[in-house]
Amino acid sequence: MPQVCYGFWKNAKFDNRGKPASEWSESPFKTSDAYDGKPLKALVNWDGFLVFDEKADILAILANYMNEISSQGCCGRCFPGRVGTRLLAEQLMKIRSGSTDKTELDKAYEIAQSIHLSAKCTVAPTASIPVMRFIENFADQVRASVVPAETAYYKHITAPCTAGCPANVQIPEFIEQIKDHRYLDALSIIRETMPLPGVCGRVCPHPCELNCRRGLVDKDPVSIMVLKRAPWDYEYYQEKAPILPPKAPEKGKKIGIVGAGPAGLTAAYYLALMGYECKIYEWMQEPGGMVALGIPDYREPRHLLRREVDIIQSLGVEIEYGRKLGDDLTLQYLKKNYDAVLLTIGAWKSRDMGIEGEKEGYSGIHESGILFLREQATGKDTGVKGKKIVVVGGGNTAIDCVRVALREGAADVNLVYRRSRDEMPAEDYEIVDAMEEGINFHFLCNPTKIIAKDNVVTGVECVRMELGEPDESGRRRPQPVQDSEFIIDCDVIIPAIGQFTDLTFLKEEDGLDVTKWSTFKVADDLYVTSDPQIFSAGDCEWGPMTVVKAIGAARWSSIMIDRYLTEGKPYLTPEEILQLDLQKNKVFDKKEDVKDQECPTIKRVHQHKLTGEERKSNYEEVEKPYTDKQAYDEATRCLRCVRMAMVALENKGKGE
Q1: Phi, psi of 193 (to 5 degrees)
Q2: Cα gap 115→106, rounded to integer Å
Q3: For residue 6, how many other CB atoms are within 10 A of its CB?
Q4: What is the chain's mean pLDDT, rounded?
Q5: Is residue 183 within 8 Å of residue 235, measured between CB atoms?
Q6: One-character DSSP codes across 33-67
Q7: What would the DSSP string read from start to end of 175-204?
Q8: I need a labelling partner for 42 at 20 to 30 A (CA). Which of 4, 119, 151, 240 fits?
């Protein structure tokens, strides 16, 4: 962790000039002290600036930062943003060259303050903050001697929402295109980092919206997920041909991918665009993984998913079905026939409830929630029609199970969850939808025993729970209430309490290290396993994850595979290190005061949605597309909170 010589960061001043380096303050921004072997000299972003090298040329660094804001960060729609930032950069360089009297400093401050108060969006105003804080607190540093040194600058443009998106979708940029009714341009921006926008516009848990600063203005964040879907719906329903980036020349190398879920499809898309020949092996008989066979059609219609897969296959990606790793396919075969291998197998194995009677073989105990959903998706008889159902769990899979059971004709559907509703990991709107459809929720209850007669389930004994101290997940640990047992009558019990990847196919000669969580052990942020030829992304690399997280991991893995095949090993560039550091340090400040900004309240626009009564007996898509007017109105709520961070590095590589 680097030590700060001086700087100003989030209302805190750091000044260790003149002190031994051993007494300098620890950096409030968590990062390494070198980027790809280049020592870190300074960091500048919307929170301020930090100087790690006492002889760093801070005026040149700030001037470079403002130049980049002018040319890359600003949209150009207001004079203070595009021109003001350039004028401020020139003024800083003028001061650096010798004009150090107070008049010149005051002029620089006035320009920065003017930008802060008058620029239309928040890009330029936040960029002026480090300059103002420097002049306010370290004007004497202008006259300090600096050691001329060649400096390398690396920047990353982000936004609170973008930094919260595992796929790093450039959200303000595509929303800006929607405001201009440029749907296909918006879709092209989305596909730069997410090749499945139709899927993620429907089933994403949208962590980006938790970072949306509009939520600090009028409580409801921008409906980013639905806006992401809007341009895809436009392309699909208007029957527009997809506009994809041109493919790079063929590299003459082949990639073998195991799993045609979101991660495998994503990696194949980007690798194919890079010029690689890609073949995906899928153990099911259709593509999509858990999106196809674990998410019901009322949330993600499979014919729309097939459209996304067809687009990926149009790049030359081949998918071979009915090939399961360990049974029909070996790692040794893949290593022999492909230049690199990517494993993206899902987490299809369900965790046991661990209660009395679970392993007695009673009729009516379903193996798992994910298998139940798969049976429905593949047209098999789920065996719940006319029966009383109990689903155990609190995640999205559990919610999907109760809603599917209802649509399959169950007479009575119950969900048992050991914590309160506030602690449920399922999306709140999914819980609301299930309640509207008539599902019975039993919160703060935990199953303890399966009741059976003549080897047939007749009920499940549960105990009331109360919440104690927080556990390792941050949620309050549920504890049983003494003598509070009760019985829920039922014919079928479906456990949906968690999943993991089945790695029992691995042999000793495969040589792959695994974790205690039944995932492949990979190098941090590089996605390479203990075998340099084999990479991993998705559920088998991280554990059960969201679709968007699998997509983000797969795109990164495709970049690492390309570097392995073209340069001999995967690595991160300084820009990528900065990007990942920004995500880890959290770009979004929930305590930010935005009351002084010109942000009129604009109510969130909700898409049309079938009522509980209309939808509970069918698999018609529940949430309908935005109209053009709805998409435009919602897009206008975006505050365009683009931000830029920049590091100044000593331009000296490893071994120099």
Answers
A1: -130, -5
A2: 14
A3: 23
A4: 92
A5: yes
A6: SEETTEEEEEEEETTEEEE-STT--HHHHHHHHHH
A7: HHHHHTT-HHHHHHHHHTT-S-HHHHHHH-
A8: 119
